[in-house]
Amino acid sequence: MNSPPSRRKKSTSAASTDSTSAANSVNEDISQQVDPSSATITVSAVEVEELSEEEQRDRLHLERRVERAVFEAGKALMELRDRRLYRSTHKTFEEYCKERFGYSRRQPYLLMDAAVVFDNLLEKCDPLDQVLPTNERQVRSMTKLEPHQQQEVWLRAVELAGGKVPTGRIVKDVVQRIMERTQVPNTYQIGEVCQILTKDNPELRGKGGCWAIVSAVNDFSCTVRMWDGEYTIGLQHLKSYNYLPAECKQMQVICDRVAPIYSDSLEETVKSLLQSLGKVNRAYLTAVEEKLLSLIEREYGLIDQSS
Predict the structure, then answer these.
(1) Which spans in the chain are helix H?
(2) In terms of residue numbers, what domain contains 72?
(3) Per-residue pLDDT reduced to its tens digit, 198-247
(4) Which of 123, 150, 181 is the last residue of a domain?
(5) Are residues 107 and 168 in the same domain?
(6) Interior CA angle at 191 toward 189 and 196, to 5°?
(7) What confidence score (pLDDT) does residue 45 get?
(8) 226 vs 222: CA distance, rounded Å
(9) Given phi > 0 = left and psi -120 to 50 = alpha, else beta, which region is 108?
(10) Which residues pair with 214 in a beta bridge?
C-alpha cells in the first residue's frame, strides 16, 4: 500500500529552499561589499586646545613641585634629626625613621645627602629653564664631590642625556671621569695611624674620631685595622695623625690587645670601655686605662691570671 505524500516533508523542503535563498542573498551582499583592505576610514579631527600662558605657568610650577618632593623630604628629615623632634617617642633617629616612615637604616641619610646636592644645583641652574634631578639615585654618586664639581657633573650629564633628566648611570660615569682626572696620589703608608672622618657618611656612623691603622694602600682608599675589625675607607675619610714610627708601633700594640676582645656579645660596660679606647687621640694608654684593659684581658683569659 502506497503511503500518501508527506506534507511535512514538502514544507521542510520549502523551508530549506528559503534558507538557501537567504544565504545566497547574504553571500551576494557580502560579495558586493568593498574589500576591507582597501576601505577608507574617516576619522573626525579633534581640535586640541592650547594652554594659556597662565596654565603653562601653573603646569611648570606643579611639575617642579613633583620633582622636588623627594628633596623636600630630605630637608624635613634634616630638621627632624637636628632638632631631635623624635625624642619624645624614640631613642634614636634611625628607629624613628624606620617605625614612622618604613625607612631602612641608610635611606634617611641618602635623602638628606641628596637634598644638599639639590640645593647646590639650584644655585647654578635656573629652576624655570634648566633640567633638575627628580630622584635621589640620580645624585647619589655626587654627594662626596665638592659643590663646584657637583654642578659641573650635572650639567655634563644633562648634555649627554640630550637635554633630558640623566639616569643615575650617566651621572655616575661622569663622576668617575672627574675622579680620574683629579686623582690625588695615595701617600699613606702601611702602619700609619689615621683618624676617621665621617663627613655625613652613614656607613661610617659611630666611627667618627676613631683611630685606624693602615694595613693596605689602594688607589682611592686604604684598608685599615680598627679596634673592632678591618675596613676599606676612602681617602676623603682619613686624616693622618702624623705619628712618629715608634708611636705607630705603640698604637699597633694597643690594637692587637683590644681587637681580640671586642665583640657585640660583650657586656655593655666592657663594650663602652673598649670603644672609648678606640677613640684615644694619643699613642699611649694612661695608667688607669692600662689597668682596666689588663683586668679585661685577665677576665677573658687573654693573659695568665697569675701574672
Answers:
(1) 7-31, 53-82, 93-101, 107-124, 147-160, 168-181, 245-258, 268-277, 287-299
(2) 56-181
(3) 876 777 888 889 999 999 998 778 999 998 889 888 888 899 999 999 99
(4) 181
(5) yes
(6) 85
(7) 58
(8) 12
(9) alpha
(10) 224
In a domain, 37, yes or no: no
Identify whether the C-beta of residue 152 lies closer than 8 Å to the C-beta of residue 120.
no
- Cα gap 248→192, rounded to integer Å: 6
Q: Decide: 134 and 166 in contact? Cβ < 8 Å.
A: no
| Longest CA pairwise span in the chain (Å) | 140
| Burial category of 214 from C-beta neighbours within 10 Å (exposed 0-12, middle 13-18, buried 19 and up) | buried
The parts of the chain modelled with pLDDT lower than 50 are 1, 6-17, 19-20, 22-23, 25-28, 30-31, 128, 307
Q: How many Cα atoms are found within 13 Å in the side-chain-facing hemisphere of 64? A: 14
Q: What is the pLDDT of residue 296?
A: 92
Q: What is the pLDDT of residue 147?
A: 87
Angle between helices 93-101 and 107-124 (to 10 degrees): 90
pLDDT the model gives residue 148: 87
63 in the same domain as 86: yes
CA 25, 26, 28, 34 torsion-angle sign: positive
Q: What are phi and psi of 264, to 5 degrees?
A: -70, -15
CA distance 164 to 64: 14
For the stretch 86-96, pLDDT in tens is 999 998 999 99
Q: What is the per-residue pLDDT for 23?
A: 47
Which pLDDT value is given to residue 30? 45
Helix/strand/coil for 115: helix
What pTM was computed for the model?
0.46
Measured in whole angstroms, the distance separating CA 18 from the mean position of its chain's CA atoms is 77
Strand partners for 231: 224
Say how far apart CA 160 and CA 183 lie, in whole Å: 23
> For residue 229, how far is the Cα from the chain centroid?
25
| Spatial contact of 80 and 103, defined as CB atoms under 8 Å apart | no
One domain, residues 239 and 262:
yes
